[in-house]
Amino acid sequence: GHRGTGKTSLLRRYEEVYRSGDLGSKKLRPFDLDQEIEFNTSKTVSEIFHSEGEAVFRRLEKEALEKIEAEVAQTQDDVVLVCGAGFDPGLLSKFWHVLWVRRVTDSQGRIFTNRPRLNNQVSPLEEFFERFELREKRFAERADDVLWLDEGIEEVQDPAETSYIAEDRLQLGGAITLLPEHFKTDLSAWITQRLNWGISWFELRDDLLTAEQMRLAFENLPPERALLSFRDPEREGQSAGWIDRLGVHYDWPVERGDCPFGTPRYLSLHTRETTLEETFKKFPDTVAPGTQLKAALPVHSVQELELAHRWQMAKPSQRLLLPMSGNGRWNWYRLLRGNDYSLNFIRESLGSSL
Fold first, then answer.
1. Would residue 303 count as lying in a domain?
2. Model-level pTM?
3. pLDDT number for residue 352
4. How far is residue 40's CA from residue 63's CA, in Å, rounded to a whole number?
5. Does residue 353 carry a pLDDT above 50?
6. Helix 45-52 and helix 33-41, axial crossing angle in degrees, nearest 10
7. Of 1, 3, 256, 345, which residue is the least packed, with the fewest Cβ within 10 Å?
C-alpha cells in the first residue's frame, strides 16, 4: 500500500488478534521489511537513503526479503510481512498471499516530515504523485486481496476487521459478481474465503466471463451457490448448457422475452422506460412458484425510489428491488433491505454493485 495507509498499525492489530487467542493455538511471525533492513545494516532507513541512495536501499530490500523467505520456509506459524510503499510487489513469490491496504484518501496524496525524501527537486506532495500511478499499477497487478481501511482512530479494534484477520465464519449473505480480475489469483482460495464469509451467491454473467472462466468457476463453486445470469444473447446456447449439465440456478432478463429453458430462479429487468410505472408493466402478471422478480433499475430521485419501494412491498416475497445509480446513491437502501432479500449484491471495492 501507499505511504500512510496504516500498514504498520495494521500489523500491530494482527499481532493483537493472535495474542487474544481468537485463533486458538495459531502463532504469528510478524515482519516489517524496513525494520529488518535496519536490523541487518545497523542503520536507519533515512540514513541509508541519505548516504547511499535509493538504488542501494532497493537492493537491501530484496536481500532482506530473501532472508525472511529462507527463515520461514519450513515454519508452521502464520507469517505476516509489511512492505514499504516503494517496494516492488512483483518480487514476492507465490508463497505470499498479497494484501493491498487502501484508503479512499490515497489519491489525494500524503506528506511526512519523518520519512526519507526520494526527490528533493520537487515538493513532498509532488514527490508522492510522481510515484503514485506506477505504484497503483504494481499493487493492482500483484494483489490477491484488497483491504479498505476507514479513516479514524486506528488504536480501536474494529470487530469486522478482527473477524477478517481471524478468518471467522461469518454470515454476510449477499451475492458477489465474479469478474475477470478474480481469475488472476488462486480462484479456489478466493472462493473458499468468501464461502467462509457466508456469501450466498456467486453470480456468473456470460457477458463478463469467457467460456474458460465459466468452466473454472463452475469447477470451484458448489453448484447450489452459483447463479448464472444470461446477458449476452450470442452466448445463450452455451450458457444454457451449464443449466443442463449442473442444474444451477439462473437469472433470465425479461427484456429477452419468455425464458425457453424452464423455470428461472429470477426474472430480471435492467433497462427502463420513461417512467418506472411503465417499466414495471414489463414483468409478467404471474410467475411460477420459486421464481422471483428482480428490478435492478436506474432510479433518479427519492420520489422514484418511494414508488419503486411501494411496488416491491406490494408482493414482498415475490419481488426484489435493487435500485441503481451512477454514484452509489442508493447503497443505504440496499444495505437496509439486504437481509430481507434472497439476492442482494455487494461489491468488494468502492461504489455500488455492478
1. yes
2. 0.74
3. 40
4. 10
5. no
6. 70
7. 256
List, for residues 43-87, the tens digit of each pLDDT value. 999 999 999 999 999 999 999 999 999 999 889 999 999 999 999
pLDDT recorded at residue 153: 61
| CATH classification at residue 239 | 3.20.20.70
**Residue type (1 letter), 243:** I
Residues 174 and 156 in one domain: no
Lookup: cell for 345: 449484491
Among candidate residues 160, 181, 210, the one where a domain is terminated: 160
CATH number at residue 98: 3.40.50.300
Range of the domain at 48: 7-160
Burial of 228 per CB tally in 10 Å (0-12, 13-18, 19+): buried
pLDDT above 60 for 350: no
Residue 248 and residue 223 in contact, taking contact as beta carbons nearer than 8 Å: yes
The region, left, alpha or beta by phi > 0 then psi within -120 to 50, assigned to residue 257 is: left
Same domain, 103 and 76: yes
Radius of gyration of the chain (CA): 24
pLDDT of 171 over the 80 cut:
no
SS3 content of the chain, % helix, strand, coil (to 5): 45, 15, 40
